[in-house]
Amino acid sequence: MEKDMLIDKLSKFSVEVPSWGFARSGTRFHSFHIPGEARTLNEKIEDAGIVAKLTGAVSSVAIHIPWDKSDDYEHLKKMAREVDLKIGAVNPNLFQEEEYLFGSLSNSDSAIRRKAIDHCLECIDIMKKTDSKALSLWLPDGSNYPGQTNMVKAFERLIESLKEIYIAMDDDMLLLIEYKFFEPAFYHTVLSDWGTAMLASNKLGERAKILVDLGHHPQGTNIEYIVGLASMEGKLGGFHFNSRKYADDDLTVGSMNPYELFLIFVQLNEFFDLSNNEVSLVIDQSHNVKSKIKAMIQSVTNLQKTYARSLLVDYEALEEARNGNDVVSAEEILKRAFESDVREIMSDMRSARSLPENPLEEFSRKFEGKLISKRG
Amino acid sequence: MEKDMLIDKLSKFSVEVPSWGFARSGTRFHSFHIPGEARTLNEKIEDAGIVAKLTGAVSSVAIHIPWDKSDDYEHLKKMAREVDLKIGAVNPNLFQEEEYLFGSLSNSDSAIRRKAIDHCLECIDIMKKTDSKALSLWLPDGSNYPGQTNMVKAFERLIESLKEIYIAMDDDMLLLIEYKFFEPAFYHTVLSDWGTAMLASNKLGERAKILVDLGHHPQGTNIEYIVGLASMEGKLGGFHFNSRKYADDDLTVGSMNPYELFLIFVQLNEFFDLSNNEVSLVIDQSHNVKSKIKAMIQSVTNLQKTYARSLLVDYEALEEARNGNDVVSAEEILKRAFESDVREIMSDMRSARSLPENPLEEFSRKFEGKLISKRG
Amino acid sequence: MEKDMLIDKLSKFSVEVPSWGFARSGTRFHSFHIPGEARTLNEKIEDAGIVAKLTGAVSSVAIHIPWDKSDDYEHLKKMAREVDLKIGAVNPNLFQEEEYLFGSLSNSDSAIRRKAIDHCLECIDIMKKTDSKALSLWLPDGSNYPGQTNMVKAFERLIESLKEIYIAMDDDMLLLIEYKFFEPAFYHTVLSDWGTAMLASNKLGERAKILVDLGHHPQGTNIEYIVGLASMEGKLGGFHFNSRKYADDDLTVGSMNPYELFLIFVQLNEFFDLSNNEVSLVIDQSHNVKSKIKAMIQSVTNLQKTYARSLLVDYEALEEARNGNDVVSAEEILKRAFESDVREIMSDMRSARSLPENPLEEFSRKFEGKLISKRG
Amino acid sequence: MEKDMLIDKLSKFSVEVPSWGFARSGTRFHSFHIPGEARTLNEKIEDAGIVAKLTGAVSSVAIHIPWDKSDDYEHLKKMAREVDLKIGAVNPNLFQEEEYLFGSLSNSDSAIRRKAIDHCLECIDIMKKTDSKALSLWLPDGSNYPGQTNMVKAFERLIESLKEIYIAMDDDMLLLIEYKFFEPAFYHTVLSDWGTAMLASNKLGERAKILVDLGHHPQGTNIEYIVGLASMEGKLGGFHFNSRKYADDDLTVGSMNPYELFLIFVQLNEFFDLSNNEVSLVIDQSHNVKSKIKAMIQSVTNLQKTYARSLLVDYEALEEARNGNDVVSAEEILKRAFESDVREIMSDMRSARSLPENPLEEFSRKFEGKLISKRG
């Protein structure tokens, strides 16, 4: 790819950050206080704005209801607009109410399903008020012990619930169905893999798509292949970017296996123009030991650099090598792009857009102290 | 369940054994000679007959082409009939020809795909000649390195190939599509999980179903849930029974986690009457250190005992406990059935049918010595 | 084994329950309220007493400092004594203070190490006051990102800290060193496997032993082999019993793979007389969806039944089969014991000791309602 | 690091290639013919020489007995010398004789242990004749089923066997003890992890060290930590380099997670000067679909590039960031080095030593055709 076009594409590339990524989070053992972390919705939007300003690659902020519930969504939109952001996906919370002990949308009790559906309908209402176009559904439902749940009936109840939600959505809204291998349920999870998410999505309609969270698969899973097949089927809705070494560790994206992340982008480029916002690229992480904002800057930057590297792949030569079963050449073509130093490209892109050369340092210099002294 | 009915169901329960389970096999490091192992097709059928005779629970023998290719399939049927067996699933071999280095039905070279399709058509022909009703397809296709294969196109080529095969099958024949997490391919496998197998099956038609091999999943996978969902969709075609601790270890079924096997049977009972041959229950193992026939007797017996235990579940009470979210009671209902000593039931069933009380001992006493002295 | 001796051994078999197993717990997403759960130290001891009374197989209760800190340990001992219990292992808490964000006993800051050491010394003091003989150390220390910590130096700092703790212990006290594959740290864990725990233990002395938690290993790990080797080395200190399907799920012991639990007991019997309290057998679970007391009754009962089954193994015949490399017979000997219905033995043991025939039902009938109405 | 010093270190860096990496290999399903593969010992040495000549970073070739057994080891040394190579580690083969069905050095039959010990003594003899300084022991011993083996006794028998071998070695020879999670044994492996290898090594003496094969760990294992602890203990003997996504896939080193490989080198640099041959760096791979020589060139080159990147780490700044618990900076210091384009450095090093600029292309141009036409 020509350098100009590469810089142009890189300039247009943007991702979504999660409001909850700026607030306190932790493990089941403890949530440590990280200096400067956001305490309110306002502060979360402020932080998202800082990351957007410093990286030039954030277009929207995902919100979580009820954590980000507001009396005045016009004000929320305005706050976001002031830092050049839109409201992105709306995320219902189906795991924190006592009623959901045995599940939410798949609960065997219709009154609890009702409550969960109503919460989703409320979220759709918030979507309308915030011009959000995606309902991003992660379902914690599952069971901890064999026997506890009739697993097939739970799936059927989920579909019944989802149909009501799906119908309530506008034609230009997407229902993103996330799957997860395990946790918080430890024996069975209703939406446990891309197969279950596809099954659900197929039963709903074309505006229901699957969402791939990089931390939600068994060890060794070839995620890029799932991405490819879902794309082929027109069913890839988006991502929750993060990284992990063990389970759903929610670490900074690209921190554990940057090559795997690159391979996912290579696969995406075969279907989408990512500079065009064709797929929902959302970061979903839980920063337990790092400065929340720095971790988010790292995440956005890692995604930018990975995208840049993926654009350096000579796709024509790759296809040719594949057709000749030249395994070594095909691999080397990928490796060549991956091993390229994209710092100059990043630097050129940044200076062309008057972005700081080093967002992390800029944050430390201009923002960090103030935020910590203000927030503690 | 009443004891009489239980014994009746247990009496009718039968499984399919694989011809290759009686012959030499091993790991990539070595295939050790096991005394008495079968060397010819005749000997494999003979051995299957011994297991059938001793356990009373084998109705058919799966064959593998070309390993079990014959000039005279009438003779093969007759041999099988003489030991009260039918020919079960026909298994094409798509992994041993040099042409398949880069894949068979999904190869980018149409001539190689042709060869692989033709081999499957040949197998369908053999099915007709042997009255077999299932083509059991395991596809080794995949790639070892990122870049090597355009994974999505490989899947599309596979579908194209399968369509030709599917069309050639009679209306009462099933195409069983097996998936596998990895091996022999180490980066990507074309049919890698139940999601890919379902996708393929959906693109073909209702006579294409998925086949679940217990050793082909990532660690921790809730296989019984996959079994349930596939059953719900009318897409469960059958099983390859074995056990594993690590990867596709192909150990005796029930040898590593007998409770998991029991849970699979509990799930099956909610959809099928297994005494009625409604699902294809095939053993697929590779016995590297045990006497082949003894290992097969253990396998059949383990399946019988597991089926018996699964019939002891009080399904009505289970459903009631579930509906009341009584996790402990639901679990205890399963545990009570699992922990039951079914030896008396097995013994009653065996004596009612004049089967030997202890098939393993009977084999040692009456057959083992002769086979070893004949075959070495 | 003769039935009398078996019942005698089973009668003497007892385990330790954890105070925290009766109180609220959950996942990082939420801790649900379970009706009747204990809210105070008194209630935890009361609950442990109920489980002891109903199962006849609990001799002590492990405590967690500061959760179970008391102004009057004489009173605590008295409370325990009243329900026929002793105070078991004392567990320091090194994961909930803000200072421990970057580690406790291995922290690079000597003041924080000091604080952590002092906490352990305080626990040793509590051991003396409560006649406890085991300091049970689980260390959350580790790091989330490559680079974060000099891993080797952290290990060396840990050893330095442990030496000070070890020296402060009486000659009849044990330091139990627990290891864990991951969580709460997601890149590296200072005590990550039995190899690191052995290394630490060897550097301290013979009263430092390793503690095996069944949920702290990579998938597929042969835990019984670790148990065997540590026993051979005189380094097996004890267990944290629980079960898991995925990670450290902290489910009821025996709920996921009861055969694996049986194999661990078979291995233990080759080194210890478990009816003699030679190894510390502690339950460590986090019951998120079950009644805490019922889950604990299930756990104790599962351990009793597993111990009974393991006593049914014909160890002499097993050794003979092994020496003859008779794989099938050796396996069948184990299976025969495992598949035995031990309910009659349990029943005989219970009636001989005037224990309730069905502890779960007895609890429901006599205790559950009162506890729920008292505690909510 | 100054560029000159970096190039100097990179110039001196060299690894060992395995003779068997040039010959046919495969999976348990099939070993495909790869054009140009070596068929004889001579051809393997020739191929090792080609890789050495093209990369400038191979100093020795590991041999496998009996595969590389020779009547004339003087001739073997001479052949090697002619292509500027030494004979590296000697690898006994304890997995291909029929006697080893139930184990070799740990077999319960003393006659079979004798045979296995004698084979190792023979290998030590070959070491003397070939000036090899390392006996590289990989033990396949283990069991497939619970009960099959008394695991602890098998370990004790292994130690007894190893003591005899250890004593027979010269003072300047190392015994490298390799461990493996599983395969070919599927229930238990005698040397299954670094803990078992350390235990064995400690029972032997200081010339017994552990060997880390990158494909022999459970998923998620932090290998660099094992490397660090073994180094701290003076027990790190060397590596078998390869890569994997699933199990022991034996893929090209660096092909699946190049960042993990980098982290291992970073850890190594904290203990060793790798330009000085202080640790045995051996490639151990099984190339099933790639040209054997090309795969080896890729492997050596990947190791060189990874070493170069690891030298770019600012270790002083890293230690400072660690001491200040500056997680983000510490991580960025590693990332900066990893993401550096080392192609210029590689190029400078190559031109300074008159090595071909692109070893893969040079091989294709000058060698590949000839080898294929000669060998088929």
What does this molecule look like?
- The structure is a homotetramer of 376-residue chains.
- The first copy, chain A, has 376 residues and is an alpha/beta fold.
- Chain A has one domain: Divalent-metal-dependent TIM barrel enzymes (TIM Barrel, Alpha-Beta Barrel).
- Helices cover 47% and strands 13% of the residues of chain A.
- Chain A is built from 13 helices and 10 strands.
- In chain A, the strands form 3 sheets. Chain A has a 5-stranded parallel sheet.
- In chain A, β1, α2 and β2 form a beta-alpha-beta unit.
- In chain A, α2 packs antiparallel against α13, α7 runs parallel beside α8 and α10 runs antiparallel to α11.
- The longest helix of chain A is centred in the first third of the chain and has 21 residues.
- The radius of gyration of chain A is 21 Å and the shape is globular.
- Chain A starts with a helix and ends with a helix.
- The mean pLDDT of chain A is 97.
- Chains C and D meet through α5, β7, α6, α7 and α8 of C and α5, β7, α6, α7 and α8 of D.
Compile the SSE list and pairings:
The structure is a homotetramer of 376-residue chains.
Chain A: H1 3-12, E1 15-18, H2 41-55, E2 58-65, H3 73-82, E3 86-92, H4 110-130, E4 134-138, E5 142-143, H5 151-168, E6 174-178, E7 188-189, H6 194-204, E8 208-213, H7 223-232, E9 236-241, H8 258-269, E10 280-283, H9 292-311, H10 315-323, H11 327-338, H12 343-352, H13 359-375
Parallel strand pairs in A: 1-2, 2-3, 4-6, 6-8, 8-9, 9-10
Antiparallel strand pairs in A: 5-7
